């Protein structure tokens, strides 16, 4: 987790961290638990037992169905599968903001969906390597 992510994640929610922990964050920094008011330290050279990581996915809901956009790869997280072309097409307007402005994400059957910068187009097939995936909770 970057120092900026750590700040915005725990500002006002410091008590969500274990009380006496010290946690490694990106760029060699650390963040203290509530015992020290979630103070951040740059260039912390101590060996720490814990690391804070930002999830590589975001969950969102459309009409009572849970979807996920998974960053950094074309695979879905456990319990999810690629959204099929018909569903992506039907909900393109709702899915599109989660893809990212200039993003392009993998969907089922080797297809893709574009972000708003590319007009939220949905393709049944797309042979390019893509960095993200749109998934739906498996039944």
Description:
There is one protein chain. The chain is of the alpha+beta class. Helix content is 16%, strand content 29%. The protein has 3 helices and 11 strands; from the N terminus they run H-E-E-E-E-E-E-E-H-H-E-E-E-E. It has helices spanning 3-10, 85-90, 92-99; strands spanning 22-24, 30-32, 40-41, 50-51, 57-62, 65-71, 80-82, 104-106, 112-114, 122-123, 132-137. Strands 5, 6, 7, 8, 9, 10 and 11 form a 7-stranded mixed β-sheet that branches. A hairpin with a 5-residue loop joins strand 8 and strand 9 (112-114). The protein starts with a helix and ends with a strand.
Summarize the model shown.
The protein is built from three helices and eleven strands; from the N terminus they run αβββββββααββββ.
Strand content: 25-35%
Q: Describe the biggest sheet?
A: 7 strands, mixed
Poorly predicted parts: none
User: What level of helicity do the residues show?
Assistant: 10-25%
Judged by helices, strands and strand pairing, the structural class is alpha+beta
Give the helices and strands, then pairings.
Elements: H1 3-10, E1 22-24, E2 30-32, E3 40-41, E4 50-51, E5 57-62, E6 65-71, E7 80-82, H2 85-90, H3 92-99, E8 104-106, E9 112-114, E10 122-123, E11 132-137
Parallel strand pairs: 1-4, 8-11
Antiparallel strand pairs: 1-2, 2-3, 5-6, 6-11, 7-11, 8-9, 9-10
